[in-house]
Amino acid sequence: MISIIRRVIFGATAGVGLALFGAPAIVSVLGFKAGGIAAGSIAAKMMSAAAIANNGGVAAGSTVAVLQSIGAAGLAATAKIWLSSALGTLGGIIGAKCF
């Protein structure tokens, strides 16, 4: 019984850590930086494709716009709570089954 509880706690902690630290780090690695989109990055390619599809502009609320917002300002408090809840729960389930 204690072993299962430890596995659930480990998985949930990993899920919350991914939500709070991993998601912003992944967005940054893609090229969505605080100062704008990094040249030559995946983000630049995404922005180019979005601009071509929208006749030269990037639509507000599009994937590129949302990711740039996360890259520039980080995740909002509500997004952190939602991601922590979702990924913490998912991590607990995976931890109980796999570890």
UniProtKB/TrEMBL annotation:
Cellular compartment(s): Membrane
Protein's gene: IFI27
Top-level taxon of the source organism: Eukaryota
InterPro entries from the UniProt entry: IFI6/IFI27-like, IFI6/IFI27-like_sf
Pfam family, one: Ifi-6-16
GO biological process, one term: release of cytochrome c from mitochondria
Bilayer disposition of the protein: Multi-pass membrane protein
Species the sequence originates in: Aythya fuligula
Designated name of the protein: Interferon alpha-inducible protein 27, mitochondrial isoform X1
The family this protein is said to belong to: Belongs to the IFI6/IFI27 family.
GO cellular component, one term: mitochondrial membrane
PANTHER family to which the protein is assigned, alphabetical: INTERFERON ALPHA-INDUCIBLE PROTEIN 27, INTERFERON, ALPHA-INDUCIBLE PROTEIN 27-LIKE 2
Keywords: Membrane, Transmembrane, Transmembrane helix
